[in-house]
Design a protein that fits this description.
This protein is of the alpha/beta class. It contains five helices and eight strands.
Length: 174
């Protein structure tokens, strides 16, 4: 039996361990139509310290990717997300990576090593993850120019797939 402070640390870690356990799929996730209701707010600071507010992106399609450096599928898809961001920025698409509860000292070397330049927003206390009801990493939402979620993918996605790109560029009716 675990007692005292070690027990409290273990119990606080359980939600994160459950999230980690769900990231180990072997097949690529697909974008599925969103049926979960209204788009939650998203506001925070990027790793560079700049404010990022989803509502300020009205008129643009925004991919909101929830990830962590300890999540193997997240790490695997991050370079493809950067390529997607580079390809689609001229077409009015923003890709933002929301990091789950890691500090800047852990995130910065990771993004630097991979050459990631897309905005990375820190979800330091997990409140953004909770508001978006993310229980699997990575999870990505495609928010249309009207600020409504059109698509969701729970798990790693092949962001270089032309069919995936087409859904992002043309979010379509919900």
């Amino acid at each position: 039996m675990i007692a005292g402070a070690p027990r409290r640390r273990f119990l606080r870690a359980l939600p994160g361990l459950a999230l980690l356990a769900r990231t180990t799929g072997t097949r690529a996730a697909t974008l599925e139509p969103w049926k979960g209701g209204a788009t939650p707010p998203l506001a925070g600071r990027t790793l560079a310290g700049a404010p990022f507010v989803l509502a300020d992106q009205r008129g643009r399609t925004v991919l909101v990717n929830f990830w962590a450096t300890w999540c193997a599928p997240c790490v695997a898809e991050m370079p493809a997300l950067q390529r997607l961001a580079d390809r689609l920025a001229p077409r009015g698409v923003t890709v933002v990576a929301v990091n789950f509860q890691e500090n800047a000292a852990r995130i910065a070397p990771f993004v630097e090593r991979l050459g990631i330049t897309l905005p990375v927003v820190r979800d330091h206390d997990g409140a953004v993850r909770a508001a978006w009801n993310v229980n699997v990493f990575p999870t990505t939402f495609v928010v249309g120019p009207d600020q409504r979620i059109a698509w969701v993918a729970r798990g790693e996605v092949d962001w270089d797939d032309p069919q995936v790109e087409s859904r992002i560029v043309n979010p379509g009716p919900r």
